[in-house]
Amino acid sequence: MTNTNNPNRAVGKSADEHASVRVDGIDGDAVRSDGARDGHDHDGPRHEHSGDDHGSDSHSHGGHDHSGHDHSGHSHAGHSHAHAPIPGHGRAFALAVALNVLIVVIQAIYGVIAHSTALLADAGHNLSDVLGLLLAWGAGWLATRRPSARYTFGYGSSSILASLANAGLLLFACGVIVAEAIGRLMNPAPVAGLAVFVVATTGVVVNGISAWLFMRGQKEDLNIRGAFLHMAADAGISAAVAISGLVILYTDWTWLDPVMSLLVVAVVVVGTWGLLRDSVRLALDAVPPGVDLGHIREYLATQPGVVDVHDLHVWALSTTGNALSAHLVMPAGHPGDESLDAIVIVLRERFSMQHATLQVDLGTTEHHCAMEHAGHAH
Predict the structure, then answer these.
(1) Are residues 185 and 316 in the same domain?
(2) Which residues form the Cation efflux protein transmembrane domain (predicted)?
(3) Would 66 be classed as within a structural domain?
(4) Are residues 17 and 137 in the same domain?
């Protein structure tokens, strides 16, 4: 039996307890911009690909010397990886960080001058957002780095970790604000309402601009969504502080400031919970949101020559890219590169699978996925 291996799938991600005819097809249109070389690891007969030119992230094996290497049933479809973050957000991160550092300094200074714990709490929240933005920015940069021998998928998953850290930071900041608000309710203090109103209004403008910078792409990229939520939450908190400052200026209702803070925190927590949930799921290699595994299985099972589909796995490579691996039982054998390429194209265009690996099994032996028995290992 001929065994051929996916040139991009990291060894150990889904180790199966058998050797069968394996063919792979990878997305050939969404070209990477960084010219990364892919790490190749072949379980069977080995040959080096260090000379491949991946400038367009598609390659041909016509120029390799494969003496002694049987390529019958071995298909290397042209491929690419959509790991890079949405273009243009590097400048957005830089501008947002600069604006938020400025507003943190202003709010902290005037919070002390105006005896406003609300402004100080808002400054602390903005500081946590600066750290969150730096995390998201760094993750976006890492996602553009080329794969290595150790990180064969590149560093796209760093954006998942950054979105998880962002959610944690935001919830932590909410906890600090709640504690501060409760303290203000129990021990009211005089507040310079006008100073609070002016500084908080400035914060609304700055954070509103920052949120606008991330509005494009926040639906497609979980990492950008985290940055957008941070900035939008900041704008809402600053607005609540500004309103309370204006009301306090005319009524001396000092209790209004902490009450408004608690209301804003409730809204922020509701929005952040979804981000935290999705981030944890992606970090655990769960099926990404919006992907219907049943429809994918049904599509693969209805392809000509396929009698069964097993070991179907879908996971996120980053906050913008998904990967798939599956075994297709085809008793008639390898259907040809064109047939497999057509399947891969549909997986990419209809099901958003930027990286697909398909292994063809003849069905002559019983197959067991090692992952199904992981819980019984001793």
Answers:
(1) no
(2) 95-281
(3) no
(4) no
Tell me whether residue 372 is in a domain.
yes
Query: Which residue, chain included where needed, has tokens 């394996």?
Result: 22
Question: Can you read off the two tokens belonging to residue 20?
Answer: 């069968």
172 neighbors 235 (Cβ within 8 angstroms) = no
Q: What is the pLDDT along the chain (378 residues), one digit of tens a residue?
A: 434 444 333 333 333 433 334 444 434 333 333 333 344 444 444 444 433 443 334 343 333 444 334 433 333 333 333 333 444 467 777 888 898 899 989 988 988 888 787 787 788 778 877 877 787 677 767 767 888 888 877 787 777 888 788 788 888 888 888 888 888 888 887 778 898 899 999 999 998 888 888 776 556 666 677 778 878 888 888 888 888 889 988 998 888 878 877 887 887 788 788 878 888 888 888 888 889 999 999 999 999 999 999 999 999 887 677 899 999 999 998 898 899 999 999 999 999 898 899 999 988 877 666 565 555 444
Q: How many other β-carbons are positioned within 10 Å of the β-carbon of residue 305?
A: 14
Please, are residues 291 and 271 in contact by the beta-carbon 8 Å criterion? no
Do 279 and 131 share a structural domain?
yes
Question: What is the domain range of residue 348?
Answer: 1-35+73-82+290-378
